[in-house]
Amino acid sequence: MKSAPFAYHRPGSVADAVEVLAAGDAKVLAGGQSLVPVLAMRLGRPGTLVDVTALPELGGLGIADDELRVGAAVRQRRVERDPTTARVPLIGRAMPFVGHRELRSRGTVCGSLAHADPAAELPAVAACVGAIVEVTGPRGDREVAAAELVTGAMTTVVGADELITAVRFPTAGRGEGFGFAEIARRHGDFALAGVAIRVRAVAGAVKDATLAAFGVSDRPVVRDVTDLLAHAVTEPDLRPATDALAADVVDTAGDAHGSTAYRAHLLGVLAARELARAHRQALPGDPS
């Protein structure tokens, strides 16, 4: 299939891009790995594509003030291979599961956040670690907590006249442990269920633990699971609690790939395993 006709605009600055977006009936093009198939299937028919790929303002990747800042034009493959990404371990663990290598070579991190696919890994990772999304529009700049970015399937709080310019991930510190896992029919397919987990410990005790589930609802589902680690820290002991959590979290309808109950089972298993793994990393000397 072919897309409907559209105008193409390559802005010279972020301000120029925002001006075109504010005029209406326009969509941002960065990596295009989600947008182009949507256009080809005519599920979307914007009058103008605003190509921000070459804007130097959006191409930065680096560490500042204990945060990894990823510009909107930065490719996923660059983030995957850049040594600074090691400062945010969950990105390194999640990135190999984001589509296929060829897609990551063109797709952008911010593009994945903006697209807000319910089965996407990066929105869940961002929400789990408390990332901040930078947004600009005709009314100025603002910041959005990643956990509040997605409002539903393929829907975010970013307005049609606004542009995500960057996302900032907090870097990991001492006493932090992480877990990430997903189940898909084939590697690179959409996740049937997945989890991203962060555990923080202070003075030999768990301070807080956060779980973000994806592929099981219309958006990443974030839960404080600190209390679970107060009663159990091994995978078998955690299973009853994570099974109960999964039964509460999973609300997606069943389909040809898996029923609601099957997804809940997968989430319960993954959550227990990765929560135990993150706890061991945060408290490596814990005899339990």
TrEMBL record:
What residues does the FAD-binding PCMH-type domain cover? 1-174
Q: Does the keyword Flavoprotein apply?
A: yes
Name the SMART domains on file. Answer: CO_deh_flav_C
SUPFAM superfamilies per the UniProt record, alphabetical: CO dehydrogenase flavoprotein C-terminal domain-like, FAD-binding/transporter-associated domain-like
Q: Which Gene3D superfamilies match?
A: 3.30.465.10, CO dehydrogenase flavoprotein, C-terminal domain, Uridine Diphospho-n-acetylenolpyruvylglucosamine Reductase, domain 2
Q: Which domain of life is it from?
A: Bacteria
| Stretches assigned to coiled coil | none
Which keywords does the record carry? Answer: FAD, Flavoprotein, Oxidoreductase
Nuclease: is it a keyword of this entry?
A: no
List the PROSITE patterns. Answer: FAD_PCMH
Q: What is this protein called?
A: FAD binding domain-containing protein
Task: Give the species this sequence originates from.
Answer: Actinomycetospora endophytica
Q: What is the lineage of its organism?
A: Bacteria, Bacillati, Actinomycetota, Actinomycetes, Pseudonocardiales
